[in-house]
Design goal:
There is one protein chain. A hairpin with a 5-residue loop joins strand 6 and strand 7. This protein folds into three domains: 69 residues, no CATH class; 122 residues, Butyryl-CoA Dehydrogenase, subunit A, domain 2; 110 residues, Butyryl-CoA Dehydrogenase, subunit A, domain 3 (Up-down Bundle). The chain is α+β, with helices and mostly antiparallel strands and 394 residues long. The chain is globular, with a radius of gyration of 23 Å. 46% of the residues lie in helices and 14% in strands. It binds flavin-adenine dinucleotide (FAD). The site of flavin-adenine dinucleotide (FAD) has 22 residues, from strand 1 and helix 12. It comes from Phytohabitans maris. Pfam families: Acyl-CoA_dh_1, Acyl-CoA_dh_M, Acyl-CoA_dh_N. Its cofactor is FAD.
Length: 394
């Protein structure tokens, strides 16, 4: 039985061939090696080539879009900065003043202007609305002071989608204003953070940064509504269920697990044990490999926030199990002597840990599932007013 969502007719086949040619030309071994080395999530030549094709924000039908997405992902194209740019663009299109929109849109589509997400702060973390970075009005400008962490891709971008506190005297969600702050402005300082997962992200300091009011997105103190669109998209994805889109935002992580699993199956078929048998001859090895294969497919088939949690947990548990099966050489990083299958399991195992954190931790996603999917009340956490009011806090 054919479970394909669409039959590839001649035109779609021709498009797939065009995409394959593009990927072969622009997502080369050198591009992949550079990404493994830097963890930057970006390659300028690739990004510009995407712009030349009209693929920064592709106006393609859903089948073509899926062909493009899957080909880029299968080739391991470094596209984190592309994805943050796309997320922010929707807010720019909706909330930026007409002249700013007209100035930026063609540059974004050509690949010359890129956006990163300036939400997380050292003290606030998951609680984005607790942002302390201050913006104070001074005539036609705003003066910004504060610090953000984990501003991924800031070194590749021209603007950050920055959440600031403009009124500390009102409830936290009501005193926030969003800016598209030009990162070249004096007073902006970007420093690298290298994660255990191999990603490069950043700490960004804002010291008396003067930003013209034209870079404000949406109303003063109305920033939470501006942020919600990109944030919801990051949490829930586009929500398509027609078989032509990922069901959850972690699906690409699950496909990384598939690659690690395929390498482990090759190992199980070819390695020799002292008695001459292959690991695959051992039923416990087959069961362990089979369980990981089932977990990956179940995670890919789980929608929305549940899928995001499931993928992350599958990757963390499964990559550890694969390392345990293959042995210590699976932990040798790419490029080291004796490294196994190009370091795929070392990479997957380290990368897995961050998937439980960025874009919202799995605990925060569990809260989202409880409240927004199951309709349960807001959780009452230690220190919250409800708990203190009930006299149960110590
Ligand atoms: C590689 C990487 C890239 C990132 N990229 C970006 C980016 O581009 N832009 C950006 O703004 N941020 C980015 N982040 C930040 C990321 O979104 C935050 O790290 C994440 O939201 C968690 O915040 P925190 O690290 O401060 O942890 P905290 O919020 O301090 O959480 C600490 C612990 O408490 C738990 N916790 C917190 N609140 C709750 C709650 N309400 N209920 C239950 N448990 C809770 C958490 O699950 C966690 O275990 C990135 C992070 C990483 C690691």
């Amino acid at each position: 039985m054919d479970f394909s969502a669409v039959v590839l007719d001649d035109e779609l086949e021709a498009f797939a061939a065009e995409v394959r040619e593009f990927v072969a030309a622009h997502v080369t071994d050198e591009v992949r090696a550079e990404e493994r080395r830097t963890g930057s999530g970006f390659n300028l030549a690739l990004h510009k080539a995407m712009g030349a094709k009209g693929w920064i924000v592709p106006r393609l039908d859903r089948a073509r879009l899926r062909i493009l997405e899957l080909a880029l992902e299968a080739a391991d194209a470094p596209l984190i900065t592309l994805s943050t740019t796309r997320l922010v663009l929707s807010a720019v299109e909706r909330y930026a003043a007409a002249d700013l929109r007209a100035e930026l849109l063609p540059k974004v589509l050509a690949g010359d202007v890129r956006f990163c997400l300036g939400y997380t702060e050292p003290d606030g973390g998951s609680d984005i609305a607790a942002a302390k970075t201050r913006a104070v009005r001074d005539g036609d400008e705003w003066v910004v002071n504060g610090q953000k962490v984990f501003t991924t891709g800031a070194q590749n971008c021209q603007y950050t989608f920055l959440i600031t506190r403009t009124d500390p005297s009102v409830p936290k969600h009501k005193g926030l204003t969003m800016f598209l702050l030009p990162l070249e402005t004096p007073g902006v300082e970007i420093g690298p953070i290298h994660t255990v997962g191999g990603e490069r992200t950043n700490v960004v300091y804002y010291g008396d940064v003067r930003v013209p009011d034209r870079y404000r997105l949406g109303p003063v103190n109305g920033g939470w509504a501006v942020l919600r669109g990109p944030l919801d998209e990051e949490h829930f994805g586009a929500g398509h269920t027609d078989g032509l889109a990922d069901l959850n935002i972690g699906s690409s992580w699950a496909r990384l697990q598939r690659r690690g699993l395929a390498a482990a199956v090759r190992w199980a078929r070819t390695a020799r044990r002292p008695d001459g048998s292959h690991p695959i001859d051992d039923p416990t090895v087959r069961v362990r490999l089979g369980r990981i294969a089932l977990d990956v497919e179940a995670a890919l088939g789980t929608p929305g926030p549940m899928g995001r949690v499931r993928v992350s947990e599958t990757l963390i548990r499964g990559s550890a199990d694969l390392v345990d099966l293959v042995g210590p050489e699976a932990l040798l990083p790419q490029g080291t002597e004796g490294c196994w299958e190009d370091g795929i399991l070392d990479y997957a195992h380290r990368f897995a840990q961050g998937t439980a954190i960025y874009g919202g931790t799995t605990e925060v996603f569990r809260n989202i599932i409880a409240q927004h999917v199951l309709g349960l009340p807001r959780p009452v956490l230690p220190g919250s007013k409800a708990l203190v009011g009930a006299g149960t806090a110590r």
